[in-house]
Amino acid sequence: MPASAVLGCGRHLPARAVTNEELARDLGASGARLAELTGVTRRHHADDGHGPSDLAREAALAALAGAGLAPADVDLIVFATMTPDVAFPGSGCYLQDKLGCRTVGALDVRAQCAGFLFALATADRFVRAGAAGRVLVACAEVHSTALDYTPRAAAVTPYFGDGAGALVLGAAPEPGVLAAVLHSDPDGLERFWCEFRAGRHYYQLDPGAVHPQARAALAGAAHEVLERAGVPADRVALFLVHYLDARVAREAAEAARLPRERVVATAEAAGHIAAAGIPIALADALAAGRVGKGDLVCGLAFGAGMSWGGGLLRL
Question: With a threshold of 0.85, does the pTM exceed it?
């Protein structure tokens, strides 16, 4: 059976950066207070009329360029998002059209903040089964158009940003996806959810209940994925810990005894971008030379569902 390897990675953040001071005018709190509540100082918002597939197109083109491929070389699109362009069809179909990927299969994955890990595992299995030679994994979110900009949401809205990340998986003699663990637990899912009904369509979060669960789940996923791969933590070059509160992500990494200097809390740079957080952070690390070919990278994520997991990649 063929293995799958990462051929290219890319990311895209909208040009408009939004500070806490800008949000403070609507949310009825000072910029300092918003930073205290969420730990986020800035995030990016998409231009009017731009959906996740628009952001994903830019990230996908960067990932394909890094792999030395063109859109016509893609055999399958797996698109992870919790903020689709429309209710249906899926954003994968929109991305397929914007890239000009003929009639290849395009499917959406809905696993919220853990969406990248679920999409990665799906793509890996298509390649390993010989059903697709090159799979585009695209992850994108436009949260900004779905948030509540009134004082009642001061402790939720500042967490979220817009952006996209993508990677290309392709058949290879040596595996690049060494392990993946996926979990979902519906018990208490109302603690972090969005009801799609008039008057109740804004994000709802119970941080007192969700943060402790996230902390424990992320630490557990770290141990589980490393054990499954048979790899000790000190061999991993970078841990990308993905949760809407970067402080909780770092606490989870500390609880798992991960090397502090090798941990990136993905929400620190541009807020929480749900499914896209890990591939954006990976693209940034590659661009900065923090990791390179042959390095091991571990992604960990927890989000609504509740869904969480871990993945170990060899670049």
Answer: yes
